[in-house]
Design brief:
InterPro entries: 6-PGluconate_DH-like_C_sf, 6PGD_dom2, G3P_DH_NAD-dep, G3P_DH_NAD-dep_C, G3P_DH_NAD-dep_N, NAD(P)-bd_dom_sf. Catalyzes the reduction of the glycolytic intermediate dihydroxyacetone phosphate (DHAP) to sn-glycerol 3-phosphate (G3P), the key precursor for phospholipid synthesis. GO terms for molecular function: glycerol-3-phosphate dehydrogenase (NAD+) activity; glycerol-3-phosphate dehydrogenase (NADP+) activity; NAD binding. With 325 residues, the chain is an alpha/beta fold. It has two domains: 172 residues, NAD(P)-binding Rossmann-like Domain (Rossmann fold, 3-Layer(aba) Sandwich), CATH 3.40.50; 139 residues, N-(1-d-carboxylethyl)-l-norvaline Dehydrogenase, domain 2 (Orthogonal Bundle). It has 16 helices and eight strands. The chain has an eight-stranded mixed sheet, with helices on both faces. Strand 7, helix 8 and strand 8 form a beta-alpha-beta unit. The chain is globular and about 60 Å long. The structure holds NADPH dihydro-nicotinamide-adenine-dinucleotide phosphate and 1,3-dihydroxyacetonephosphate. 1,3-dihydroxyacetonephosphate (13P) binds next to helix 9, helix 12 and helix 13.
Amino acid sequence: MPLERVAVIGAGAWGTALAQAAAMAGRYVSLVARNEAVIAEINARRTNSAYLGALQLSDRISAAPALAEGTELVILAVPAQASRKALTGLGASALEGLPVVLSAKGLETGTLLRQSEILAQCAPGARAYVLSGPSFAHDVAAGRPTAVTLAGSDREETETIAAALAGPSFRPYAADDLLGVELVGALKNVYALACGAVEGAGLGASARAALIARAYAELGRLVVAAGGSAQTLGGLAGLGDLTLSCTSAQSRNYSQGMALGRDEPLRPGGALAEGVATAPVAQAMARRLGVDAPLVDAVNLLLDRDVSITQILSGLMARPLKRED
Ligand SMILES: NC(=O)C1=CN([C@@H]2O[C@H](COP(=O)(O)OP(=O)(O)OC[C@H]3O[C@@H](n4cnc5c(N)ncnc54)[C@H](OP(=O)(O)O)[C@@H]3O)[C@@H](O)[C@H]2O)C=CC1
Ligand SMILES: O=C(CO)COP(=O)(O)O
């Protein structure tokens, strides 16, 4: 089987979970961490307690401070705003000719770039793939079943990578629409903030469901205008992840949204909510594309603390009535 030796960059919750998934799929995994204590704990005790509690990691995983010789597949699993720094640290020559699976769900602030565009700048000789879909790190690491999308422009290599990562409880479906998969994965976090705010403010499950449906329509307008496929929207990375992240307090974005809805402070330094950094980027993108994105606008107002979610929903309800499209 090709792709025996996988390196996962970033030993946080998602990197460790993806390392575990790859190990359960039969790969040998080097989990690259920047923190020496994390490396020592994984190698000595087979746990990463800061991120995954007492969960026992596969003995096919070893932790290391740098990319090992002989790596055949790289998975990048640091937060979206840290990807550029992590890739620069690895160096373009180390990634030359390698497939790199991008797993962060966010757009870069300032540049408005997607993860694959950052990879193209930092390591032009690497080949980009994107993994996205409904998958909480704790679920994946514990071997609870889910299915995700693995997108890439080389159909044969996409299928080979999907097969290399497929295990008894982790099922990657190959897809072509790399741009669309990247965008829906990043943007669903913005809508998850809004849905969490609706719950936090006690506005009810009906409002939340209506918001999810309108978010789905808005996401479709954005993805298609940006050049993605409408089919991606109904897939695992679109509908699948939107459903998960917009309904579960296990989502950091949703739970940060709940704090916004209660008018509580966000937790600085707390668990990462990618939607907070991505919301202004999404707004700039929508404006550049000329797409009407009232929910993205609303989340930005909410994050600026200009208005409450209740006021925002009242404003949306007062917009001129229109056909549902
Ligand atoms: N958690 C989840 O359920 C899922 C997360 N994702 C996505 O995965 C991405 C990462 O999230 P998650 O793992 O949860 O975040 P965590 O906060 O759990 O972990 C982030 C990890 O990235 C490391 N890191 C940060 N900056 C750098 C850097 N410059 N160089 C090297 N390592 C760095 C951190 O290292 P250190 O420990 O030293 O700070 C830490 O190990 C996000 O984009 C998220 O949307 C996708 C699906 C599921
Ligand atoms: O993307 C995720 C699940 O698919 C994780 O969502 P959060 O980053 O909101 O926790």
